[in-house]
């Protein structure tokens, strides 16, 4: 009995972990190309999920149409946010940039709560079946879809950054802004693009989680869980973000297992990632795959 | 420590000692004394509600000053200040309830306990900086919050802890008016200590670490020591502020010290002006009065346009949104804070009518 529970939790951990990985990837994307730590990443999920929910339930659009609409909205949202709020802050100290994103996160969360309320709203059923049988374990189809979608996104990211013109421009900007600019890359566009992509992909994760757990403000907690993931993986490594996400997802579920079976402390799974975060920061501050910065005077 | 470049005529400093006095000019000293006198008289004029707002400005101001020493003067980032604030509140209640230590003694002792905790959580600061430190303190906020809800022996768990009233030589301080004077005394002492700190060797070392830590290290400043020390001092302020908060409410519950409060503390010092002692007080006043102002604005709208039920029911969220918006707008349009604005106003009058 316990071993099947363990297996179920591990599967859960992997699925939730891929979602963490996707959100962490969006976070790293922004950090890598614009040097901004985005504390409002969780709110992207929230806004995306609520937009999609609103389109599906209030506007009564079919899901296949509402989903791309959400994407378009989030793209515009990301670009506008970068242009209006973040652009004036280029070159300001770290604390100012951090505080702006934190301020934004409070603001969006309050606005969203005042519009949609604090209660979780269920997504209308999109898949005909309640759960799918995988190796004798019940897995929700939305989770399976999320797994597939996450993998697709990851492959798409890999292609985008390796072969597409825009992706190469973004990598060049991340490597060295001044050199990129002198080679004719529009750094402004790259910045806006990074925010747009990040907002879009986060919204996707938000919709997927919303389908499973219902849409509520709790979604923004994903934005907080992203920090342990990116620190474990290294702040500026996209591969690291995915692996970090998986590690944190697994760790959470294993902590829950250990908690439920042996320790009986309660609520261990919410704080365990943060202990890991502090430990990693103490012994290996640049994470598993992050680049070490060497400072010279 | 930002020294004003506009010192009135006839002010000559002939020694270093005179150049580093707490008050730059006699006028500024007199102004502060005047402010103190006005504050002393305030409770006899103001309503109870306004006094309670002043008390809030007092204890939040003390904690915010600690954060300003850490963030504004040493250049470290802390996203976990509310947790230390809460620890101070619990520590004071605990010392008072379990050991029967009189409250007035328990408050500074709670500050010392919080200092020890801050030194412990400051250890990562010895190695990390900037972004990584922000994330580490972010984690410490969650770890401490979890500790509050778990440690029944210390915090009373989910039911919270009772904090007794202040007892001064057999006379029990009750009511807002009496408590106001206690807070005022703490504010004066803590702010004088804070200003004094910034003109000592340690204070100058903090500023050096902030401005260019590599140069500071070359000049012989022990980076690790001063970074951790700064955390300790900031936690002391947070602990004292938190203890006052606890004894003012009479009841401490773990729900009050969330990340939102940490962010509000950061908002206070950003809005007031980083690295400025006076600015801290201005920013705190702004942050405490902002929800009240929002409420007043909403009720004015209600009078003018008529009752909109959606707005009334969303009032709590509008207040929250106002906090976020204020931080964002200040960072974009006035990154140096209210104290900068205040200096501009002063210099405008000083240079009038030849402002260039």
Major β-sheet profile of chain B: 2 strands, antiparallel
Structural class of chain A: mainly alpha
Proportion in helices of chain B: over 70%
Remind me, CATH topology of chain B? Answer: ABC transporter involved in vitamin B12 uptake, BtuC
Q: How does the major sheet of chain A shape up?
A: 2 strands, antiparallel
Q: Major sheet of chain B: order of its strands?
A: 1-4
Strand order of the largest sheet of chain A: 1-2
The percent range for strand residues of chain A is under 5%
Question: Can you put this structure into words, describing what you see?
Answer:
The complex is a heterodimer of chains A (297) and B (356). Chain A has helices at 2-34, 41-57, 63-86, 94-116, 141-163, 165-175, 177-182, 187-213, 221-233, 238-263, 268-283; strands spanning 132-134, 137-139. Chain A is built from 11 helices and 2 strands. Helix content of chain A is 74%, strand content 2%. Chain A has one domain (2-283): ABC transporter involved in vitamin B12 uptake, BtuC (Orthogonal Bundle). The longest helix of chain A is centred in the N-terminal third of the chain and has 33 residues, at 2-34. Chain A has a two-stranded antiparallel sheet with strand order 1-2. With 297 residues, chain A is mainly α. In chain A, a hairpin with a 2-residue loop joins strand 1 and strand 2. By secondary structure, chain B is mainly alpha-helical. Chain B starts with 15 loop residues before the first helix and ends in a 5-residue tail after the last helix. Chain B has one domain: ABC transporter involved in vitamin B12 uptake, BtuC. The longest helix of chain B is centred in the last third of the chain and has 29 residues, at 277-305. The relative contact order of chain B is 0.16. Chain B contains 16 helices and 4 strands. In chain B, 75% of the residues lie in helices and 2% in strands. The mean pLDDT of chain B is 85. In chain B, helix 4 packs antiparallel against helix 5 (103-127). Chains A and B meet through helix 4, helix 9 and helix 11 of A and helix 5, helix 6, helix 10, helix 12 and helix 15 of B.
């Amino acid at each position: 009995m316990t071993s099947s529970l363990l297996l179920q939790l591990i599967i859960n951990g992997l699925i939730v972990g891929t979602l963490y990985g996707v959100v962490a990837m969006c976070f790293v994307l922004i950090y890598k190309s614009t040097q901004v730590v985005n504390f409002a990443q969780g709110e992207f999920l929230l806004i995306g999920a609520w937009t999609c929910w609103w389109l599906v339930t209030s506007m009564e659009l079919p899901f296949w149409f509402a989903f791309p609409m959400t994407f378009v909205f989030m793209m515009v949202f990301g670009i506008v946010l970068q242009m209006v709020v973040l652009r004036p802050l280029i070159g300001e100290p770290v604390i100012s940039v951090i505080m702006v994103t934190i301020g934004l996160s409070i603001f969006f969360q309050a606005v969203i709560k005042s519009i949609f309320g604090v209660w979780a709203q269920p997504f209308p059923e999109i898949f005909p079946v309640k759960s799918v049988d995988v190796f004798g374990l019940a897995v929700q189809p939305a989770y399976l879809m999320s797994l597939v979608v996450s993998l697709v996104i990851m492959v798409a990211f890999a292609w985008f950054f390796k072969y597409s013109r825009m992706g190469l421009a973004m990598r060049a900007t991340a490597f060295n802004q001044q050199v990129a600019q002198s080679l004719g890359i529009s750094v402004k566009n790259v910045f806006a693009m990074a925010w747009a992509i990040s907002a879009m992909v986060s919204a996707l994760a938000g919709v997927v989680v919303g389908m499973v757990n219902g849409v509520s403000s709790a979604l923004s907690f994903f934005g907080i869980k992203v920090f342990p993931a990116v620190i474990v993986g290294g702040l500026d490594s996209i591969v690291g973000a995915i692996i970090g996400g998986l590690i944190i997802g697994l760790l959470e579920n294993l902590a829950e297992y250990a908690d439920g079976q042996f320790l009986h402390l309660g609520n261990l799974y919410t704080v365990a990632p943060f202990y890991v975060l502090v430990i990693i920061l103490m012994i290996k501050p640049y994470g598993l795959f992050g680049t070490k910065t060497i400072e010279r005077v | 420590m930002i020294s004003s470049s506009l010192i009135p005529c006839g002010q000559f400093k002939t020694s270093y000692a005179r150049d580093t006095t707490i008050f730059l000019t006699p006028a500024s000293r007199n102004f502060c004394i005047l402010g103190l006198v006005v504050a002393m008289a305030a409770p006899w004029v103001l309503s109870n509600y306004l006094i309670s707002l002043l008390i809030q400005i007092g204890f939040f101001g003390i904690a915010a000053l600690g954060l300003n020493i850490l963030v504004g003067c040493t250049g470290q980032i802390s996203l976990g200040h509310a947790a230390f604030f809460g620890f101070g509140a619990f520590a004071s209640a605990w010392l008072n309830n379990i050991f029967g230590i009189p409250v007035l003694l328990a408050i500074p002792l709670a500050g010392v306990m919080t200092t020890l905790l801050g030194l412990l959580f400051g250890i990562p600061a010895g190695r990390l900086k900037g972004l990584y430190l922000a994330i580490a303190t972010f984690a410490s906020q969650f770890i401490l919050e979890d500790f509050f809800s778990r440690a029944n022996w210390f915090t009373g768990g989910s039911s919270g802890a009772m904090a007794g009233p202040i007892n001064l030589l057999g006379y029990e301080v009750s009511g807002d008016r009496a408590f106001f004077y206690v807070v005022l005394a703490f504010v004066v002492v803590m702010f004088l200590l804070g200003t004094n700190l910034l003109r000592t060797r340690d204070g100058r070392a903090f500023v050096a670490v902030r401005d260019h830590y590599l140069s500071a290290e070359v000049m012989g400043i022990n980076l690790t020591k001063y970074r951790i020390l700064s955390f300790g001092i900031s936690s002391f302020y947070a602990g004292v502020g938190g203890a006052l908060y606890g004894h003012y409410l009479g009841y401490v519950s773990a729900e009050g010290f969330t990340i939102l409060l940490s962010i509000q503390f950061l908002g206070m010092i950003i809005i007031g002006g980083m690295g400025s002692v006076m600015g801290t007080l201005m920013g705190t006043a702004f942050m405490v009065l902002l929800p009240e102002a929002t409420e007043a604005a909403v009720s004015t709208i209600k009078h003018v346009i008529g009752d909109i039920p959606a707005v009334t029911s969303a009032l709590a969220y509008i207040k929250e949104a106002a906090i976020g918006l204020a931080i964002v707008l200040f960072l974009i349009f006035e990154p140096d804070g209210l104290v900068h604005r205040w200096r501009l106003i002063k210099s405008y009058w000083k240079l009038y009518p030849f402002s260039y």
